[in-house]
């Protein structure tokens, strides 16, 4: 270990958080979201599905308060870094990336906050918030939002049974995906 390591400990990536973020990304890539739920298999559609799965895990961590704050922050940091990587991969110029990442981070934070508020308001509010985030025809977005709201509420319920130590280790098991209503 370098003598400077304590000075740069904020740069150290938590391997459990990396593994947990990887599991969230893998879940968001499942074809069922794009085939059965009607989410467009586009950059924007994948962003919405990723943010929903991230929201469910962050919501679970929020229940543990300060104890889970560092893990939640690491997940958010990884999400931001992932978005920067995506922007680079789609050819956004290096000079404009910081500005676009800041804009994306602000919209991501707003989206996650809107999910949190909508979740507290019940199934209908969450379905509406999800439908709004999807760039689809109103009736298609409403149907997708309904199904995804059911999915998210199921994931949140399931994650309540996951221990914080398992989550810290990057171990998460998402429930089987179902489109049935609550």
Written overview of the protein:
The chain has helices spanning 15-28, 32-35, 43-62, 69-89, 97-120, 123-133, 138-159, 164-168. With 182 residues, the protein is mostly helical. It has one domain (13-168). The longest helix is centred in the middle third of the chain and has 24 residues, at 97-120. It is globular, with a radius of gyration of 17 Å. The N and C termini lie far apart (51 Å). The relative contact order is 0.16. Residues 1-11 have low confidence and may be disordered.
Helices and strands in order:
Elements: H1 15-28, H2 32-35, H3 43-62, H4 69-89, H5 97-120, H6 123-133, H7 138-159, H8 164-168
Helix pairs in contact: 1-3, 1-4, 3-4, 3-5, 3-7, 4-5, 5-6, 6-7
Short description:
Helix content is 66%, strand content 0%. With 182 residues, it is mostly helical.
Q: For the residues shown, what is the average pLDDT?
A: 83
The helix fraction, in percent, is: 55-70%
The N- to C-terminal Cα distance equals 51 Å
Number of helices: 8
Strand content: under 5%
Throw out a few tags for this protein:
globular, mainly alpha, 8 helices, 182 residues
